[in-house]
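Support request, please re-run this one:
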Amino acid sequence: MRMRSLNVFGMLVVFFALLNQNVDAQTLANGGLLSIQYDCDQVSKVNGETMGSKFTSLETLCNLIDQTGMGCKNVANVCKKKTRELFVGTQIELATPQNLKDWNGLGGLGAFYNPATVCLMRDIKNLPDQKIVNIASIPLIKGTGEQEIGFTGFDQKSGTFFGYHKLRACGKVVGCLDIFTQEFELKPVTSHVQSLGFRAGDYAIKDAYAIELKTDVLAQGFTAKLPSIEVVTPIGPVSVTPEFRLGRYSDLVSSPFGGNKQSSYVSSYFKGDTNRTYDVYGRNIGAYATTMSPLDSNPGSVDIKFSQKGWISNLALGGRDSGNSNAIWKPNPNTEFPIRPDLTLKTSRSEEEKTPNAYLGASALVSYGISDKLPSSLIARLSCSGFVELCLNAASVYAKPSIDFSFSSQLNFFQNEQSYWNQKHTQGEFPKPVLTLDTFDQSRELKIQSLSSVNGALSIESGLNLNISLRVHGPFGFSKTLIDLTPKIEVPLYSKSEYSKQREVRAQSLGSSVVSQKKFFQDYTSWDQANQAAYSDDGGLKAIQQCMKEPGIEKKSPPEMKYERGDPSFLGEILEQPCNICVAWDEVNYKDDNGNDKTEAAGLYTILPTTQAGVPLENRWTCKSARQSGCYDMCRYLPDGTREISRTAVQLLKTGTAEGMPKSCKADFSTHGITN
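Re-run finished. Output below.
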């Protein structure tokens, strides 16, 4: 049934709630309060009136909706600033032919990976529109999650990168909305830690490096129900109650993941070897992690074994995989260093990371009475008067088509360093084998990744509420409920998850190659491939040197947030409603005033009868006994007002989507169905 008044969804919900609240209509037309860029420290104004911090826009919206008499439930409203340091590495005492000491394979490249991190991000300014775009799309229901990682400025003196993480969420019916623009900055920071006595083997650790990541994090959500409206349809007036759902969540994600702070990560240089990595953040903790010994020994034993060791520092903006396609990673409780999917952006590592970064949904609850649709023979019996009262107490059906989208959007920063002893040894080598630059190697990696995903789902919920009672008066009188039907159907029509193409830049170094080739980076891959091609030998170092020489760029504001209306007719297209409703009861025996035995005849009726012609025989059924009372099919209304069956009671029971429907609906597969 296509209902013209379902066009209510074509108008942004805030119009219904706020047009009479003295709010500038142009502001609403451009996306309204939902599209105001949030900043936890700033104050917003609407139509010249201060509305509080910008992040409270959804709360303000809910308050105004409530003032109009509509229902609005604010399910989340949090905004705060977050800062955390991504550890990058250390600078250790220089090894020379005259200064050879035992080494643990860690430290030494922090001074290069600090600027490499911000310079790889700075290269975004050379891309079209100065942004990286990841688009995940479900064409059938026009669900699209578009992530942007954009450049807004660079301070040359401090080496600070300014940018934004933006998610544009689109869905049929609800339209397209720039759900958030999360501004962030990356600032290289250094600490002189030599006085703390940290050592990498016997080499002094002089400096510790990190990237300070600052951003605002937000969690907001609300559900708004608009007042019910009456809609004229081919079957008469029905009541329609529209509902709109919206949520947004932008966080700074860090360890622990699944309660786990240590993992096994296989370096691309040391594939196949066992390893142990620990999650670290901050300069002092990172410097301490650089002191790890690569050797394990059993007290009182001459047995010494090598354990490849290192650290991971991993921060991310946004989440991963908001759909149901992949389960959340959980560490094996029996494994001390489980393999964790840090670089697999299609797999979330915690409940928090699985939380959608955006959620859009819309429904239309359609309900109407069916007392005037009852068969005339049944209506004649339902007089609710006389010695024997047969009463119709309730007779209604409802249907609720829904469309829901969830989106994820992540920018992932990953730093890793591992030591590798490349010499074999025997149990007799004690107290320790030789640990030098010749017997140790080191893997150093930086990766920055981006990915978006979208999950879309269509569903229809329907139900029946029918109650008929019998009451006999006189000395032998009694009351009995003949019919009390409240079956409920929940049909998932469609569900799908899609992912964008993952984008990645990286810098990698192998310790032995740094020494032998005199190149600090063996791999340096930029977003800007053309710019990278201009660097020849040791391209990564030259890229960093050029980056730090270029003049700074004054910070600018991120792009304005926008809103586009959706297509409301779609909910009408997927709407299904109960039909072929079976109403039946067995005969009832009673005594009259004189104590004589009497019988109230059994009843067997079909409400909204619809032909099953064209339905395969194995999916047909017939209303023919009291035990089938409450069975019904689902129908769609065609533009000419006629009905056609979309799924029968048999099919609903087979798929397990019918709750409270008698199993006897599918007892007879051989009948030819009900005809008008």
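The two ends are 19 Å apart (CA to CA). DSSP finds twelve helices and 33 strands in the chain.
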